[in-house]
Specification:
Layout (H helix, E strand, L loop, with lengths): L4 H9 L3 H6 L3 H8 L4 H11 L11 H6 L5 H30 L15 H10 L5 H38 L4 E3 L9 E3 L2 E9 L2 H10 L5 H11 L10 H13 L4 H23 L2 H9 L11 E8 L13 H13 L6 E7 L2 E14 L1
């Protein structure tokens, strides 16, 4: 017997997505929920000949769930709605990608996503007492930082749309066409949240520790000291790592080049290992998410790796032919390419279904 609408809604609101998948009627609820903008629901009602209620503010999702609308009808409506919106985006996609290629550097300017207001308040509002100094800082460093922040946010927004459309265009994917948390699409009837990322520096540190190796930054600093190479003044360790890596790569001394090659080779081995067995990386990504945005949704991670320049992996987000080739190869795979993973968060264990697609550019 199918679960009630109230039970399904309660499980959904409490992020019990996997319980919903297993329950009779749960997947049908999720597919309806994934399209539950009013305009989408109205179209569904019209398509199946279900009379729209008059007056008040009826819960169309509840009415649809309690009706005799079946999953096939729901999926057909979703696909029609997606194709209508996709046609408009497809007409401008080539032009959009050309615009994305104009971005030559990816630098947040010290203002990172989800921390913009906090950074401004802590570094300008609460720290500076002089109005003249404040005005000078705004006109100088803050505007420059905001410039980088806006460009990076713009790039991430539009490349995310391009990448999501590659997935949603595939015949094995059922898109989510409404605003729904933790679900970007269904793959083999499993709701998935897409996450696009790069080889995480924290994961590299962990793998080096397991191998008995020092952090990359420490190794590069020692090498720079041995060769009397000045270390750039940079507080951000990730940025400093990139600057030192590039500086030593350009140095003519064999010791510098060999050290860079050693570090790079170990990173390359991590990528190869992960391609063969991605569950360790999946677990790490779940266990190292930000506290404010924690959830245990089923996820599909797209990991972008440029082996010739790890710090330029962000450019692959606009490389549509490469993205299509790798994503479609994954989705076309008849083998079970999703994994059941258990991870720990705040002393609690969570079970998820997740997968990893690694796009490697040599």
């Amino acid at each position: 017997m199918a679960i009630t609408y109230n039970q399904a809604k309660q499980w959904f609101d409490h992020n019990n997505i996997n319980d919903l998948i297993q329950a009779d009627g749960g997947l049908r609820f999720l597919k309806l929920r994934s399209m539950s903008r009013k305009a989408n629901m109205v179209e569904l009602f019209n398509n199946v000949g279900l009379t729209l209620p008059h007056g008040g503010r009826p819960d169309l999702l509840q009415i649809a769930y309690n009706s005799n609308i079946n999953e096939s009808q729901i999926e057909s409506a979703i696909k029609r709605i997606y194709i209508a919106g996709r046609t408009d985006r497809l007409n401008i996609e080539d032009e959009l990608i050309n615009e994305l290629y104009k971005l030559q550097s990816f630098d947040w300017g010290g203002l990172y996503q989800n921390n913009l207001e906090k950074t401004i308040v802590n570094n300008y509002v609460k720290k500076i007492r002089s109005y003249d100094v404040l005005e000078s800082k705004i006109e100088g460093e803050l505007l420059s930082s905001l410039h980088g922040y806006v460009k990076c946010s713009w790039y991430n927004h539009w490349t995310s749309i391009v990448i999501e459309d590659i997935f949603k265009d595939h015949p094995s994917i059922l898109p989510a066409v409404g605003l729904v948390k933790q679900i970007d699409f269904f793959y083999r009837n499993i709701p998935l949240d897409l996450k696009v990322t790069y080889l995480p520096e924290g994961y590299v540190i962990k793998k080096r520790e397991y191998a008995g190796l020092e952090k990359e930054l420490h190794v590069l600093k020692k090498c720079a000291k041995d060769l009397s190479i000045s270390v750039p003044r940079e507080k951000n360790e990730s940025k400093l790592l990139e600057l030192l890596w590039r500086k030593l790569s350009d140095h003519p001394d064999d010791k510098a080049r060999n050290k860079i090659q050693e570090i790079k080779s170990f990173r390359d081995s991590i990528v190869s290992e992960t391609e063969n067995n991605p569950t360790d990386l999946i677990k790490w990504l779940y266990e190292n998410q930000g506290t404010r945005r924690f959830d245990a949704s089923n996820r599909l991670f797209l990991v972008l790796v440029n082996k010739s320049d790890y710090f330029s992996s962000w450019k692959l987000k606009r490389a549509k032919p490469l993205l299509m080739n790798r994503i479609n190869a994954f989705l076309n795979n008849d083998n079970d390419n999703l994994h059941n993973v258990t991870f720990t968060w705040d002393d609690s264990n969570y079970n998820v279904t997740a997968g990893v697609i690694i796009l490697v550019q040599d």
